[in-house]
Design goal:
With 170 residues, the chain is mostly helical. The protein has two domains: 1-91, Four Helix Bundle (Hemerythrin (Met), subunit A), CATH 1.20.120; 131-170. The protein is built from six helices and no strands. α1 (4-25) packs antiparallel against α2 (32-52), α2 packs antiparallel against α3 and α3 (56-81) runs parallel beside α6.
């Protein structure tokens, strides 16, 4: 008989996959705001997975930072661009085919990693529960450069979106 935590894992994992697919495919409308709202739901269901892992800090950060601040930034950029329906790009069959091929390759790599990985192998020295001290130590000692590169990348993306939306004032 499965435990409640197992059932909740499958519920949150299924919701994460469903909302992630709806975010990318967006079958309900071509409006990018709808995709942004599905991304918020994906982030919230991922926070539920963090709670199941006893990583309460990561769940709170996931909700506050990503579902809150980053999504406000995304919506700001979407509204700033204000794309008209006729200006939106149509689906290119070659791009859809290459994207599908990339997804299949990544899925194959994931399956291969899962099959070849040893079951029950844990990283030595890693705490079993999410602690903020261990997270901060790993983030600012081992991954400081990627963290800073990501922040610069987000800044460049925001400046690029502002430049793209700027109207010619001639």
């Amino acid at each position: 008989m499965p435990q409640l935590s197992d059932l909740l894992f499958y519920v949150f994992a299924g919701l994460t996959l469903l909302f992630g697919f709806l975010c990318v495919a967006n079958p309900l409308s071509r409006n990018p705001v709808t995709s942004a709202m599905f991304l918020v739901l994906t982030i919230l269901s991922m926070a539920g997975l963090f709670v199941l892992l006893n990583a309460f800090f990561l769940a709170a950060v996931q909700i506050l930072v990503y579902a809150g601040a980053v999504m406000v930034l995304f919506l700001f950029v979407i509204m700033l661009l204000d794309m008209k329906e006729e200006e939106r790009r149509r689906l290119n069959k070659a791009v859809v085919g290459l994207g599908s091929l990339a997804v299949l390759v990544l899925a194959g790599i994931l399956v291969r990693a899962i099959v070849s990985g040893s079951k029950g192998a844990a990283v030595e020295g890693a705490p079993l529960e999410g602690s903020t001290r261990a997270l901060g130590r790993i983030l600012f000692e081992s991954y400081l450069l990627p963290f800073e590169i990501l922040s610069i990348l987000l800044l460049v993306a925001m400046v690029g979106a502002i430049l793209l939306s700027k109207r010619d004032l001639k």
